[in-house]
Amino acid sequence: MKKILCLAAMFSLFALGSANAEVVGIVDFDKVVDNYSRVKTVTDEISDKFAEIQRYSLDKEREYKKLSTPLERKNFEEATAKELSRKQDAYLKLKQRKEAEIDNAIKNAIKQVAIANKIDTVVEATVVFYGGVDITDKVVKTLNNPSVK
Known about the structure:
By secondary structure, the protein is mostly helical. The chain has one domain: 2-Layer Sandwich (Protein Binding, DinI Protein, Chain A), CATH 3.30.910. Helices cover 72% and strands 7% of the residues. Helix 2 runs parallel beside helix 5, helix 3 packs antiparallel against helix 4 and helix 4 packs across helix 5.
């Protein structure tokens, strides 16, 4: 769907004619993600949180095996299920928040680079067959620059 919208945008640019020649920038989003240093930090943070949930589950499984009465097991299962659900919800919220932060940072960097280079429109590189100004490296540099927020 994203590619179709980008293609439609490109075709509409061509329909405007050469009198309003716009400068089109292209960005290789995968390359940006692969080279953005914060992505590794965020990925590690999310992986650590997931590993914490896995350790919790394994620990509770060991504890469960030590219980002897059905009532103890039932109470333990209920308490563990609630806590596990809470941990999973926290994990999902963290993951969504961090992914949104990365996405927003990338979009803001693309906008900054486009404005600085007087680029009117920026599209994903996969929808461009020919032409355009590749700003991928400039976006990565902007993202990895500690003085840029």
